[in-house]
């Protein structure tokens, strides 16, 4: 078998990375370590669905976690004390490099907070005086890049398949850069080894997602963000006409949903920056994504990957109430 896989991906929504440095130089748009980090995240998310069913008590749960850490290190590399080299090397080449901009989402204006601005805190301008932060520089949607996955000699085919499944999950649900869990920097796989992977219709998108959710149906809720029987997915915006319009509509739906969840349950959507202690911060288990279809339409979707435990000691939230409060996951059992 070939020890390399070549993919092409599309940048669906604008991407925001680091700020300019004092010399005015912008950072690289997409670097291999950032892509590898995304692949590791989605590999872990899928891995629990495969092995988590064996975790029926605390002892077996810890055994599964230890096995997953070892497997992840075998695939992607690990540091001391069990240092080992990654079995896959990544190369990124831009096919169509996007231009820079700093005027979207719009900066907040009283009474005019649209959905993308609501999702873009940390990107849009904020603060006053000495605490003022300018709008971050971003890169426009529509760019595309080639990703080459070069596997080490004698790599098992199962390893290649695992990494390619993580690549697909990243394309279906994820992105790169700042606020990627809120739909910024969404990416989509367009080809793999020369074969088109662009989904034709909304039904095709739902079918691919449904297969992933069904594979996780036997896994208990995990101790980290991953697919399990508690995972839920929903299409929130159908037939968006362009990425930014779809993102705005998704953001407005999210803002409405957060209001329905209520303040008491809101910590389950992630603990914000104002949390008093660093250990109390939690990345949101609710991931928003914009996906293109071959029809020219765009889809705004939400993925819920709850974990147990999620909140710090002393904080408890009924996740079932959160799911019901969001309201997106009721149709078809909340699974596509």
From TrEMBL:
It comes from the Bacteria. Residues 9-187 form the CRISPR type III-associated protein domain. The keyword ATP-binding does not apply. Keywords: Antiviral defense. InterPro entries: CRISPR-assoc_prot_TM1795, RAMP_III_fam. One of its GO terms (biological process) is defense response to virus. This is Type III-B CRISPR module RAMP protein Cmr1. It comes from Candidatus Hydrogenisulfobacillus filiaventi. The lineage of its organism: Bacteria, Bacillati, Bacillota, Clostridia, Eubacteriales.
């Amino acid at each position: 078998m070939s020890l390399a896989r070549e993919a092409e991906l599309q940048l669906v929504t604008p991407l925001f990375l680091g700020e300019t440095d004092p010399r005015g130089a912008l950072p690289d748009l997409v670097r291999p370590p950032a892509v590898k980090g995304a692949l590791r995240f989605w590999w872990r998310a899928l891995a629990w669905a495969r092995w988590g069913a064996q975790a029926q008590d605390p002892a077996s749960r810890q055994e599964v976690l230890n096995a997953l850490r070892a497997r992840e290190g075998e695939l992607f590399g690990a540091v001391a004390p069990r240092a080992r080299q990654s079995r896959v090397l990544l190369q990124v080449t831009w096919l169509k490099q996007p231009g820079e901009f700093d005027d979207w989402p719009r900066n907040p204006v009283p009474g005019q907070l649209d959905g993308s601005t609501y999702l873009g805190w940390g990107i849009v301008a904020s603060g006053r005086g000495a605490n003022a932060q300018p709008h971050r520089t971003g890169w426009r949607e529509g760019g595309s890049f080639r990703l080459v996955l070069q596997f080490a000699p004698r790599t098992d085919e199962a390893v290649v398949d695992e990494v390619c499944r993580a690549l697909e999950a990243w394309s279906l649900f994820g992105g790169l850069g700042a606020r990627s869990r809120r739909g910024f920097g969404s990416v989509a796989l367009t080809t793999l080894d020369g074969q088109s992977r662009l989904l034709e219709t909304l039904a095709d998108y739902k079918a691919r997602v449904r297969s992933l959710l069904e594979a996780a149906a036997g896994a208990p809720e995990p101790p980290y963000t991953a697919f399990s029987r508690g995972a839920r997915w929903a299409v929130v915006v159908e037939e968006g006409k362009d990425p930014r319009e779809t993102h705005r509509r998704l953001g407005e739906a999210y803002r409405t949903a957060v209001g329905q969840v209520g303040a008491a349950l809101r910590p389950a959507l992630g603990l914000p920056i104002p949390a008093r202690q660093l250990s109390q911060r939690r990345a949101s288990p609710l991931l928003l994504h914009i996906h293109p279809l071959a029809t020219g339409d765009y889809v705004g979707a939400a993925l819920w990957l709850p974990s147990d435990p999620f909140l710090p000691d002393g904080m408890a939230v009924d996740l079932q109430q959160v799911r019901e409060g969001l309201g997106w996951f009721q149709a078809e059992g909340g699974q596509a």
